[in-house]
Amino acid sequence: MRKPVFQLLAVSFWLLSAGFLQGAEPGHNFTRWEKEIAAYERADATNPPPPGGIEFIGSSTIARWKTLVQDLPGQPVFNRGFGGSQIVDATHFASRVIFPYAPRIVMLRAGGNDLWAGKTPEQVFADFQEFAATVRAKLPDTEIVFIAQSPSIARWRQHEQEKKLNELAAAFVRTRTNMKYIETYEIPLGADGKPRPELFVKDGLHFNADGYQLLAARVREFLAKQ
């Protein structure tokens, strides 16, 4: 008889916590982000994030969210995204841009670049498990939230992979305490099931102000229930 999915996920999570699985492929260039990480550290020296705040980390959707504070009024939010990054990058730099803040909540939005680089949804999901294990080992009381992938015009050919990654992440967090999932897959889609051009900047990949308003509304809805 096949083991239930949640048991398999639990075993994988234990392996990641114990350090037996690693998500970064050989030759992954972590130094690419050194300037951005160092800039965050310099800013922290004079203007640190609020203690027990809500940290947003991930790739360009987070890094380019310049109106984060205005979009989530009354919430102690701060942004530590770096565009072009993968989940393994957030894991690698956790000791510098997550652990020092001891945030109450860590919101992760990443995975699209990972898929675009050739990883399978299962491989990216394993990277998310490693991220969660890394944060949980140091900050056991911090809530980890996976913000789902949503399709873009420029990367429409990977939308089924994004959907699969979302499904894996959603199933996983249901088996864990202090972990949540925010569904955002459908927010940029029109009546025809395709991404709406009016929600993206010229590159067809990144949200414009209207796209961010949809994302912000979904996050506000989630935070209102916390």
Keywords:
226 residues, alpha/beta, Rossmann fold, 5-stranded parallel β-sheet, 10 helices, 5 strands, 44% helix, globular, disordered N terminus
Short description:
By secondary structure, the protein is of the alpha/beta class. The protein has helices at residues 5-18, 34-46, 60-63, 68-71, 87-92, 94-97, 112-116, 121-138, 159-173, 209-224; strands spanning 54-58, 77-79, 105-109, 143-147, 179-182.
Mind explaining what this structure looks like?
This protein has 226 residues and is an alpha/beta fold. It has one domain: Rossmann fold, CATH 3.40.50. It has ten helices and five strands. The protein has helices spanning 5-18, 34-46, 60-63, 68-71, 87-92, 94-97, 112-116, 121-138, 159-173, 209-224, and strands at 54-58, 77-79, 105-109, 143-147, 179-182. It has a five-stranded parallel β-sheet with strand order 2-1-3-4-5, sandwiched between helices. Helix 1 packs across helix 8 (121-138) and helix 8 runs parallel beside helix 9 (159-173). The protein is globular, with a radius of gyration of 17 Å. 35% of the residues are buried. The model is unreliable at 1-9 and 11-22 (pLDDT under 50).
SSE blueprint:
Layout: H1 5-18, H2 34-46, E1 54-58, H3 60-63, H4 68-71, E2 77-79, H5 87-92, H6 94-97, E3 105-109, H7 112-116, H8 121-138, E4 143-147, H9 159-173, E5 179-182, H10 209-224
Parallel strand pairs: 1-2, 1-3, 3-4, 4-5
Helix pairs in contact: 1-8, 8-9
N-to-C series of helices and strands:
HHEHHEHHEHHEHEH
CATH superfamily: SGNH hydrolase
Spatial gap, N to C terminus? 38 Å
Q: What percentage of residues falls in helices of 4 or more residues?
A: 40-55%
CATH class: Alpha Beta
Kindly provide the radius of gyration, computed on alpha-carbon positions and rounded to a whole number of angstroms.
17 Å
Q: Beta-strand level of the residues, as a percent range? A: 5-15%
* DSSP strand count: 5
Poorly predicted spans? 1-9, 11-22
What is the global morphology? globular
Class by SSE composition: alpha/beta
